[in-house]
User: What shape does this take?
Amino acid sequence: MATAKEILLDCPIIAAVKNDSDLEEALRSECSIIFLLYGNLVTIEDLVQKVRRQKKLAIVHMDLIEGFSSREIAVDGLVKLCRPDGIISTRAVQIRRGRQLGLLTVQRAFILDSLSLESLGSQLEAGHPDFVEILPGIMPRIIREITAKISVPLIAGGLIQYKQEVLQAIDAGAVAVSTTCRDVWKM
Assistant: This one.
C-alpha cells in the first residue's frame, strides 16, 4: 500500500476546501488529496471521516480549525479525535509533533517579501516537514529559486485558477499545487 507521501507525490492537484459545498465537490472529483481548511473541534471528525470514506487523504490545516491552540498538544488532540492522514501548519512546533506521531506534514509559508523568502530555510529546519506549501503559488521564478535551495518537496498554493498556472508551477519545480478553484480540480 502506498504511503501518504507517495500518494501526494503522485497527485499533482490537491483540492483545498473551505466549506461543506466545496468538500462535496472535492469528494466527487478525481483529486486523491483534500486539504481541509475549515471546521472546528465538533465537526472535524466528521469531515475527516467523509474524506476517508471516499478513499482520499484528509490533511487538516491546524491553524484554521476553530478550538485548537497553537501548541503541539493540539496535534495530539486531533490525532486522538479523528486520526487524519496529515496536517498543515505555519507553526514548526506542530509540524514537528505531527511527524513524531506519524502524520504527513505540510509546513505552510507565506512568501510576501525578500525577508520571508530568506527566512524560509530556518523555518523548515525548525519543523522538518515532509512538504512545504508556499503561498501565493503563482510565482514560477520564486518557486524555481526556492526549489534550488531546499530539499523539501514544494507545493504551490494560493491564487492558482488556471491550467497554465498549474503547469508553470510544476515546470518551476513544484511537486503539486493546492487550490480552492473547482475548475482546476477537474484537470
The chain has nine helices and eight strands. The beta strands are 13-17, 33-36, 57-61, 86-89, 104-110, 131-135, 154-157, 176-179. The two ends are 25 Å apart (CA to CA).
